[in-house]
Each structure stands twice: as C-alpha cells, then as structure tokens.
Amino acid sequence: MNRVRLFPFLWLLVLSAACALRAAPGVAANARAEGLTLQRGTFTVNWYMPARGVVRGLCVFGSGDGGWSYWEEIVCSHLAKRGWAVAGVDFAKYSTTDYTQAVLVADYGRLVAELARRAGPPSGDVPRAVIYGGWSMGAEQALPAAAEVAARPAGLCGLLLVAPGARGRYGLHTKDKLGFTPTGEGTFGLADFAPRLHDLRLAQLHAGLDPLDSIKWYHGLKLDLRLWKYPRAFHDFDGACDDFLKLMDEAVAWLVSPPPRVEEKP
Fold this sequence. Notes:
Blueprint: H1 11-22, E1 32-38, E2 41-48, E3 57-62, H2 70-81, E4 84-89, H3 91-94, H4 101-119, E5 129-135, H5 137-146, E6 156-162, E7 167-169, H6 174-177, E8 187-189, E9 201-207, E10 224-230, H7 237-240, H8 242-256
Parallel strand pairs: 3-4, 3-5, 5-6, 6-9, 9-10
Antiparallel strand pairs: 1-2, 2-4, 7-8
Helix pairs in contact: 4-5
C-alpha cells in the first residue's frame, strides 16, 4: 500500500507484509463508486456524502499507492459522518500511467466541482470549505494539486496530510512500491511547493513508530503547518483506530477555523 524502506531496516520487510494483509484493497462499502470524466479519461471515484444535515465542506482524499483499502474506507466514512462530502481517489488506478501537475490540478478541480454539484448549493453566499487530503502517496499528491493558485477552487483552505514522504511522483513506478525514493523526471519534492502554499493551512499527522513518512521536509520553510503526533503506532495508525480519528478531527477543525485576530497596536 505504501512505501517501505527496505534498507537498512530488514525488519520492515515483516512490517510491510503485515500491512499488506491488513490493507488489501477492499470495497468502499459506504460509498457510491461512480465514474467521472477527468482529463485522464473516465475514472471511478468513491463518493461519500453525509447521510443527513448540512454539508460542512468538500474534501478530495487520495489513497496510498496500494489502492483503496479498509483504511481509506474508515477515514472517508468518518469524514462523511462529520458532515464532509468526500471524493475518494484510488491512486493505484489513477497512476497506472504517468501524468503532469497540470493534469492533476485540473482533475482535482473537476472532483471539487462534482462534489459541489452533488452537495447542492451552500446556505448563504460564502463558499463551503474545501480540503485536499490523503494518506501516504495521496497526501503527497495534495501539495502539487493545490500549488497552482490561479486554478484553486473557491474555498480551498487547507491540506490534510497523513504520513507523506518527502518526495512523490506524477505516476507510480514499480521501484516506488519497493521503497526507493522517487527521483528524476516526473518527480517532485514536497518542499518545492512551499512558496505557493504559504496562504493555506497544512495539518500533518505522524505515527510515532513510523519510519516511512517524513516530518523533516518542511523544516526551515515558511508554512502555516501544524504536526499532530500519534505515539506508539506504525504507518497505519493502529488501523485508523478511534483515537487516530479523534486526532484527525482536531486537525480538520484547525484547518477550517478562522485565523486568530491580530489586535492593532494603538
């Protein structure tokens, strides 16, 4: 599902096998899996809509590189219960061939537009909050998707980054799945987009025993980023357990909260 650093930690081979068994691609039981025409062609999206009440906001959530699994199902179902309309992107399928940042940006915009259509008009004149998020590979893709300021959907306020690595690729190659850091043509570093993300909030969630993601990529950068640490857990945050979901709720609440008032000096 997600990148495994094969060397020098041989014990990660055991960890990766366990994660693969726990996070095998599954059915999105609480979603409507329906096609949408994107720049990459017709693509099946997992749509999660709140069962009742006001739609709080819109979220595009990308999967890890192993595809849609129980983990994404739990997280996106939880977001829907909290009032979010969610478009779930299976990056194992989306990334079968390489693409460009421009295609990614356009497709995220198309996903938000379709979420807005399904959710219906908001109450009042203020657009709903929009969040780009994801796990592992899906988290990495959220940054370039949001980096083209002129192409952002109205209401985009933050990124929900769960266990991203420091680098990603516009696509998915075999060596990426084997744990080698993406380099060369068609790849990117998360830090590359910092100058164009300074006006968004970034919430990163990191498991204390997780050697797979990076909490160093943003060091020294001028970003409005907060880190939420979940101790004594590996890359899957104890199977997206209830305590992790509570932590994620805190991160989402911060992403959409108004900025603090700055009192003018007399």
